[in-house]
Amino acid sequence: MRAEAATAGVSRTSPGLVLVVLGLLVAAVATAFMTVGVKGNWEFVLALRGRKLAAIAFVATAIAVSTVIFQTVTANRILTPSIMGFDALYVLMQTAAVFFFGSARISALDPRLAFVLEAGAMVGFSLLLYRWLFLGRRRNLHLLLLVGVVFGLFFRSLTTLFQRIIDPNEFVVLQDRLFASFNAVAPALLAVAAIAIPAACLLAWRMRDRLDVLLLGREQAVNLGLDYRRSVSLVLVVVALLVSVATALVGPLNGMEPVSFFGLLVASLAYAVMPSFRHRHVLPAAALIGILVLVGGQLVLEQWLGFDSAVGIVIEFVGGITFLLMLFRRMAR
Amino acid sequence: MNESDRPQLLALAAGLGLVGLLACVSLFVGVSDVTPGRLLDPATREAALETLLWSRLPRTFALMLAGSALSVAGVIMQLLARNRFVEPSMVGTVESAGLGTLLMLLFFPGAAVMAKTLVAAAFALAGTALFFRILRAVPPHAPLLVPLTGIMFGGIIGSVTAYLAYRMNLLQALGAWRNGDFSLVIAGRYELLWLTLGATIAAYVAADRFTIAGLGADMSRNLGLDYGRARALGLAIVAVVTAVVVTTVGSIPFIGLVVPNLVSLAMGDNLRRTLPFVALSGAGLVLACDIAGRLVVAPYEIPVGTVFGVLGSLVFLTLLLRRTGHAG
Q1: How far apart are the first and last CA of chain A?
Q2: Is 80 exceeded by the pLDDT of residue B22?
Q3: Is the separation of the CB atoms in A163 and B166 below 8 Å?
Q4: Is residue A295 within 8 Å of A30, Cβ to Cβ?
Q5: Interface residue B168 vs chain A (CB under 8 A)
Q6: Do B151 and A149 touch (CB under 8 A)?
Q7: Average pLDDT, stretch A186-209?
Q8: Which end of chain A has fewer CB within 10 Å, C or N?
């Protein structure tokens, strides 16, 4: 395998050392992010940037962890929750909530309760849909990818359709919720994320050994006594939860583009720098790399070079090319 | 004319009748009250006639022209790529045309519409040619890789465009060319679309060449076809149609995929036979979706691109998943 060849050169580095280095890098970038170019009231700036940093860290961790475990359970390195339409499904849930219950009722709800309801619907629907897709008839990878992408397009079109049918006054309410960003995170949702994301990550962490077994493939895993269907369902629940929180916090990472490649990029990087395939190493590495990329990207592109909000677009560009290269590499093998 | 042509001619006449009926409905649906009665009544005739001539008639023409031309562009692209699951909005053609339009908006905002369209067409042609170049790397046993590559390729071009638009504060103009909307069509703002009729006729004249080109480069050379020229003509038609539609009303996603696939399910792949049906069904489907979009939330309306986005992606999913049934 290509990844093995790539890691052969660094096989003597220990995974722990890589994690320590990544951790130090994240600490350095986070410190720079908090302190670079501060003028005036430190207390205010630190509180503002602290919230932003926390949101970035939560979102990066959620996407990184969900992508890695999703790839494990689907037995490949190219499918990601985003490519399969998970975040589009969550936006559809948010829109459908306003569509069916009206903005008045939704905005009267505590945002935390609204989130719990939407995330619950999201978990239910994604279990139904993706269990059928992955556990039903065997489908080849290209078909799964294409079906996932088209599902994403379908969810997005349906979202647009709902948004168009909704009364324009109601749409304003919805828009506020959909177009969140790192700069405008609702404090109430940040508190929800502070509970939900660590909880979901803990679930993933407790599955780490079972996930290692899943890496061997469906047949081997079943042979070794793993309840395959149950593991797949559990992973889908964790993924749906993580995607819900991340999307609720900051909206789809890339605005309205069909696919976000952030997860793919982070997971590929994690496997490339980690001299180990075990989830106890890869999961934290992916989360750290995710934070590094997002915070570092914000720092370099937005604060130093002044390219406001360019990170998402750069990620799409690099990620799209990475995706195509991975797709063609697979063919060449 | 032989016996076997008769059912086809009947079907064609029925199709024409249906599209004509839809067109009539389209003329009389909308906020302003235009009915045959008001047209005949001398007191209201002038106002009704004005609405009809300036707004309803152009809109109906624009819908039919865009619908049929995009469907024909889709079928040509499918023959040239030898893949049923491609169409201009899925392989970067629309995104390239959008990039061209944006660049013109940035550097020559005062240029004539014709010049903008030509530049958009040049970009569409270059983008599509690049996609076909990438396709050479796709092995023949991986047909689904073709649309997948196309969507991602379009996404990459789209991210460049989005970045430029964002930097130059033109983000608002961005969504428009991917989401066909005919609500702003009035006389004087859509006439360029008649160019697509020329492209559709050219496609019909060259239909046999495209059918043969669909057999592959080697086979068509064996049969005496200048494959390079046929492909260049096909790509030019696709590029011009896409550019004109993108600059005037915005593309309609999936139409170029859905219509040819449904027609080919019913009557096979001989383009000379199927092309009139592809054009007619495209026009009819877009008309129907636009009328529905005007009725559902009246007095507001839903752009036809949005309606078709939902419908088209559903049909595409069905086609994809049905296909696996065959593969076992």
Answers
A1: 9
A2: yes
A3: no
A4: yes
A5: no
A6: yes
A7: 90
A8: C
Compute the distance between CA of residue A313 and CA of residue A297 in angstroms, rounded to an integer.
Answer: 11
* Proportion of chain B above pLDDT 70, given as a percent: 95
Q: What is the mean pLDDT of residues A92-96?
A: 87
Check CB contact under 8 Å for A256 and B313: no
Residue in this structure with the two tokens 């060259």, named with its chain if needed: B206
What are the CA-CA distances from residue B127 to residues A160, A261, B124, B154, B251 (Å)? 27, 22, 5, 9, 16
pLDDT digits (tens, 9 = 90+) for A263-288: 999 999 999 998 888 999 999 999 99
Q: Does B253 touch chain A (CB under 8 A)?
A: yes
Are the Cβ atoms of B320 and A320 closer than 8 angstroms?
no
Q: What is the pLDDT of residues B55-66, one digit of tens each?
A: 889 999 999 999
Residue type, B223: L
Distance between CA atoms of A86 and A34, rounded to whole angstroms?
32
pLDDT at A175 over 90: no
* Minimum-distance CB partner of A327 among B148, B160, B303: B148
Q: What is the mean pLDDT of chain B?
A: 87
Nearest to B314 by CA among B290, B278, B295, B289: B289
All structural domains of chain A with their residue ranges: 2-332
Q: Are B159 and A320 in contact (CB under 8 A)?
A: yes
Residues in chain A closer than 8 A to B131 (CB atoms): none
Give the per-residue pLDDT at A3: 46
Q: State ipTM.
A: 0.85
- CB contacts of A324 in chain B (<8 Å) are 134, 149, 152-153, 156
Nearby residues of B293 by Cβ (< 8 Å), 6 or more positions away: B301, B302, B303, B304, B306, B307
> Which of B160, B310, B323 has its CB closest to that of A157?
B310
What pLDDT is recorded for position B175? 64
Residue among B140, B117, B126, B59 nearest B92 (CA): B126
Top pLDDT among A218 and B202 is at: B202
Query: CB distance A168–B300 less than 8 Å?
Result: yes
User: How far A23 CA lies from chain B's nearest CA (Å)?
Assistant: 31
What is the per-residue pLDDT for B326? 44
**Residue pointed to by tokens 């969550």:** A90
Percent of chain A with pLDDT over 90: 22
> What does CATH list as the number for B56-327?
1.10.3470.10
Residues A232, A235, A237: CA angle, nearest 5 degrees: 110
Mutate which: B99, B102, B159, B164, vs A, most A CBs within 10 A = B159
Length of chain B: 328
pLDDT band for position B20 (50/70/90)? very high
Find tokens 């168009």 and name the residue. Answer: A164
Per-residue pLDDT at B287:
94
A48-71 per-position pLDDT tens digit: 888 888 988 999 999 999 999 999
Domain A2-332 has CATH 1.10.3470.10: yes
Chain A residue numbers with beta carbons less than 8 Å from the beta carbon of B149 are 324, 327
* The total number of residues written for chain A in this structure: 333
Show contacts of A134-142: CB within 8 Å, 24+ apart: A134/A73, A134/A74, A134/A232, A135/A229, A135/A232, A137/B324, A139/B324, A140/B144, A141/A76, A141/A78, A141/A79, A141/A330, A142/B142, A142/B144, A142/B145, A142/B148
pLDDT of A169 higher than 80: no
Q: Chain B contact for A309, CB < 8 A?
A: yes
Proportion of chain B above pLDDT 90, given as a percent: 48
Provide, as residue numbers in chain A, all residues whose Cβ is less than 8 Å from the Cβ of B321.
147
CB contact under 8 A, A146 and B306: no
CA–CA distance, A323 with B25 (Å, rounded to integer): 46
